[in-house]
């Protein structure tokens, strides 16, 4: 199913007579394909745009090319260069004094910084975006609303999260951006899974709560299938694994984890990969393959895990603790507990700080 937004952009590219106008539509189309994982298509347009406008003859096109290159680096490999490239685009947008470009690049900076836990700069980017956003720019409205929905949900402020998610969904539906709706359904599901697993560390969740999270993950998977979006598949399957871990469905989890780990879509040294590996070990240990489980858990590299966010670290070390309990690694249990407690304390401090930063946007009063 071709997204209505893609259909419109393809028509605009075909009909455009002005080279600059055509290039802007091409860049917007390529950015969409970068978001959906259609990297070959996006790269082809990037090369064409570079060939025609690589000399910087048009500031707007140059900035849009930089946005495209940042999104390719981000969605293809979560490269650190993505933030640098988008930051440069944002700087040039400010210099150009173009409100539409300032709001666009600020929205993406907020998105990237939220996922990097750079919350101070995220809040600044949100403020910049909302102060410059044109009233009729549904794409930017959708992006910044989605970031705010995610940030409020991560902070546990459900009412404000729902308000911004509803705004994001309305904006995405209006412009026919199926990829944004897919991202929204995935983000909500993944954040709910992570939140449930964090709560489960201290207090076992009732089965009814886990069922609600399970339904949300399945709804996100169903939407991706209906809209024929593949770019989030490995992330959705990771969220599915999180639900199966909560339900202790080890036989079901094992093949799913193995398939995701064997794919080439997860960067090395990513928190997602390490969590899947330790969940694989927990599944193996729970099914009686303790020797392989011990081999995996004892090979965990603290120096790598310490670079992850506090919530990811807490989940990784909690699975390690459960493996240690099943496999009789009594000499390591106190260490795992220490790492969990340290990560949880840090996570609570981060959430408290984030709640303060988000306060100006809590009721949408920044609009």
Features:
about 375 residues, mainly alpha, Serine Threonine Protein Phosphatase 5, Tetratricopeptide repeat, 18 helices, about 0% strand, elongated
The SSE order reads: HHHHHHHHHHHHHHHHHH
**Main sheet characteristics:** none
Structural class computed from helices and strand pairing? mainly alpha
- CA radius of gyration is 21 Å
Q: How many angstroms does the end-to-end distance come to?
A: 34 Å
Strand content: under 5%
- DSSP helix count? 18
Report the principal-axis shape: elongated
Query: Helix share of residues?
Result: over 70%
Mean pLDDT, rounded to whole units?
Answer: 95
Please count the beta strands (DSSP E, at least 2 residues each): 0
Q: Uncertain segments of ≥5 residues (pLDDT<50)?
A: none
How does this model look, in words?
The protein is 80% helix and 0% strand. By secondary structure, the protein is mainly α. Helix 5 (81-96) runs antiparallel to helix 6, helix 10 runs antiparallel to helix 11 and helix 12 runs antiparallel to helix 13. The chain is elongated and about 70 Å long.
